[in-house]
Amino acid sequence: MGNSTGCQDVMHYLLSPGFEERPKINGAIMQASISDREAIPMMVAQATHDSAVKIAQAYVEDGRVEDIIPSNITGEAFPRTPISARRWLSLISPGPEHDGEDDYFSSDFGDERLRGTFGKIGAAGVPICFAYSGADEYVPDFVNKEKLVAKWERIIREGGGVVDEASGVVRGATHTMAKSTKQRTSEDSVQDLVTRVVGFAQRVEAGRVTT
C-alpha cells in the first residue's frame, strides 16, 4: 500500500524493468495518488515555480543531476526536504512533454498516455485498489476525482488488469486523513479506508478479487 509518493513507488514497482525478478506481491493499494505537477503550483508562486524549473534544467545540462537545488527556491513546497535537480524535474514534469518519471497521476493525460502506464498493469498480474482522498487539499478544484479514478480503472481493465470492487474515492478524506472536513470527521474517513483495505486484502487472500 502506498500513500502519496508511495503511489508512485507502487507504479514503479509494477512497471519499471526488472519486475519479474522482484518479490511477487498479491495486490496493490494506492491512497492519495495525487499529481505533484498539479499540486506544487498550489503551494508556490508561479515565479518561484518557473525559477526552480530553470535552475534544475541548468543543473542537469551541466551534469549536476543529483545536486541539491537551493532551499530558498524549493522551500515553499518542501520546507524540510532537500530536492535534487533530477527529483525536482521528475515531480514538476515540465511541459510540453510532461515526461517526468513520477508523473503518473495528472488529470490532463489522455487515454493514449495512460495506456503506457495504467494500461500495462495487467501484465504484472497484480489486482489494484484505489483509495483516492475525496477532500485532498493537494488536488486542484478543477479535478473531478470520481471521473479521474474511473478513467484509471477503465484503462487498467482494458489492458487486462483487475480493479477491486472497493476501489474508488474515499469521501471527505484529506491527504493524510488526519483532519476532519465539512463532509465527515477524520474518524469516519479512516474507518471507510480501513473497510476498503481489509475487504480488498480478504478478497485477495481468498482469490476472489473481480472487476
Summarize the structure.
Helix 3 packs across helix 5 (85-92). The chain has helices at residues 5-15, 36-43, 46-61, 71-74, 85-92, 111-115, 145-158, 186-206; strands at residues 2-3, 28-31, 128-133, 168-170. The chain starts with a strand and ends in a 5-residue tail after the last helix.
Can you tell me about this structure?
This protein is an alpha/beta fold. A four-stranded parallel sheet has the order 1-2-3-4, with helices on both faces. α7 links the parallel β3 and β4. The chain is globular, with a radius of gyration of 18 Å. The two termini are 19 Å apart. The model has no long low-confidence stretch (mean pLDDT 93).
What topology does this entry show?
Elements: E1 2-3, H1 5-15, E2 28-31, H2 36-43, H3 46-61, H4 71-74, H5 85-92, H6 111-115, E3 128-133, H7 145-158, E4 168-170, H8 186-206
Parallel strand pairs: 1-2, 2-3, 3-4
Helix pairs in contact: 3-5
The amount of helix comes to: 40-55%
Low-confidence stretches: none
Distance between the termini: 19 Å
Broad structural category: alpha/beta
DSSP helical segment count = 8
What are the defining features of this structure?
four-stranded parallel beta sheet; globular; 211 residues; 8 helices; alpha/beta
